[in-house]
């Protein structure tokens, strides 16, 4: 296919980034009627009222200006207190915390801060769709650490060690995991911390699902001795507080990393919108009970989803966190794209083919259970019908 004159003017690095496997699918869904979507990784709850109200009130009071590049100091202080309470790690709100436009921006800033051309980033796979493109766009090279159903979709310290080369700069972790729902065992995480220290790696720890942990206790990399300085902790409000559209997240780490990230942020973004920051402040101050209630709902749905796959005869790893199930749909004899496409066409249920999250996602599908019990029940009735037609059971 010949490229248009203007397409040739697009930076080849950008040109070569493949379109997101999720987007591609949702373009299809948007053209259909009666679809139950278990595809998007987004809470089905509206942001709790007191958070919306706090934002409205801040607008009434005239809070419509730029904030400090770092974000509102009061919000950074609240984040520092939150991190101290949760992980027992202390961050100085004045130079070790940056408020960003979601975890998405924080991730991009971390990559651009750390990477030089050719630097490698280790990424457990299946992985969240933006990790590899963000690495590439920052000039780095993603190196995947495949995980599987057999090992509970967890990476091991040995696997990390074996993947390290003289170009390895960072390890990017996301547990509870998108798309598998896996959580890491603390002991293995401690061994990985040892490897990171041995090989002088920086860990980027995407903690966006930390509050959505249903089994055991979640551990963050920065809480291991010696790891605080070499970890860039990312978190935000999108998932735990049902605030995806507000676009607020943060990064916490040593002053050199966070200072450098702030330098990029101040020129590219200037600051995170004040409305979102005001809402985030209210979420941290008064949002815990509401957040816990939403998490209880997800947990109830989690049980329902795992049982539904069991009943269908489709092997499904029991997710310990986030709001995704990752069933092994290869038992139907279809590959992940065929499964997702045919299920959508025949039964109007949308989910994401596992290969959208990398090669080791092939044979699986990501099912979001951030949906109402009614929608989940109907979607599973339809899915069971489809799976039976494929000859399972
Ligand atoms: N990290 C992971 C693992 C995600 O699943 C998502 C959203 O789905 C993000 C980051 C983006 O979060 P935010 O809305 O804070 O930009």
From TrEMBL:
Family, per entry: Belongs to the class-I pyridoxal-phosphate-dependent aminotransferase family.
Species this chain originates from: Desulfotruncus arcticus DSM 17038
SUPFAM superfamilies hit by this protein: PLP-dependent transferases (SSF53383)
Keywords attached to this entry: Aminotransferase, Pyridoxal phosphate, Transferase
InterPro entries: Aminotransferase_I/II_large, AspAT/PAT-like, NHTrfase_class1_PyrdxlP-BS, PyrdxlP-dep_Trfase, PyrdxlP-dep_Trfase_major, PyrdxlP-dep_Trfase_small
Domain of life: Bacteria
Pfam families for this protein: Aminotran_1_2
Cofactor: pyridoxal 5'-phosphate
Keyword S-adenosyl-L-methionine: no
Primary enzyme class: transferase
Protein's name in the database: Aminotransferase
